[in-house]
Amino acid sequence: MDFIKIRFGNSLNHEDSMFMSNIDTGLVSNIHSVFTVSERTWKPYMDMYETRQDVIICAEIAGVTKEDLDIEIDDKAVRIAGKRFEGSRDDMSAYKLAEIQYGRFERVLFLPAPIDSEKVTASFQDGFLKIRLEKLPENKTHKIPISDG
Questions:
Q1: Fold classification of 6-86+102-135 (topology level)
Q2: pLDDT digits (tens, 9 = 90+) for 41-72
Q3: 122 burial via Cβ count (<10 Å: 0-12, 13-18, 19+)
Q4: Where are the alpha helices (DSSP H) in the chain?
Q5: d(CA 29, CA 57)
Q6: I need a labelling partner for 86 at 20 to 30 A (CA). Which of 27, 39, 143, 148 fits?
Q7: What is the pTM of this model?
Q8: What is the pLDDT of residue 18?
Q9: What's the distance, Cα to Cα, between the start and end of the chain in Å?
Q10: Band of residue 22 on the pLDDT scale cut at 50, 70, 90
Q11: Rounded-to-integer distance, Cα 114 and Cα 98, Å
């Protein structure tokens, strides 16, 4: 059975992620692609929803292999990163339409509820990555009777 590697830690930082996202957005919108010096990046489409028991993340990443995926989870967020390589084409060809994005990607999704890091599963089929994170049981309050003396 093949496994998708998942790394647990506490280094995913909301502020760092927001900063890098703003930098990425600013660079892409303000600098023409001819002048960019870094490797192209893209952001795959993702869904995150929750049931009573789970938080589920689904990522559309067709053309990415499991070996080129990296998933990290901490108590607040999930980081999904990887790379999609451009397929080979004839050297004499010229694009008439080029919409498929290639290169590195990274997404950090902040979790809506605490999860049990021991009960995380990931599957990859038909270009979709699905991560199921089991929620921790809700803290239940108990009424404590007070006895005399």
A1: Immunoglobulin-like (2.60.40)
A2: 899 999 999 999 999 999 999 999 999 999 99
A3: buried
A4: 14-30
A5: 28
A6: 27
A7: 0.68
A8: 55
A9: 62
A10: low
A11: 41
Report the C-alpha gap between 75 and 11 in whole angstroms: 10
In this predicted structure, what is the pLDDT of residue 33? 43
Indicate the length of the chain as a whole number. 149
Domain ranges of the chain: 6-86+102-135
Q: At 3, is the secondary structure helix, strand, or coil?
A: coil
Question: Quick check: helix, strand or coil at residue 33?
Answer: helix
Q: E strands along 24-85, which residues?
A: 41-42, 46-50, 54-60, 69-73, 77-84
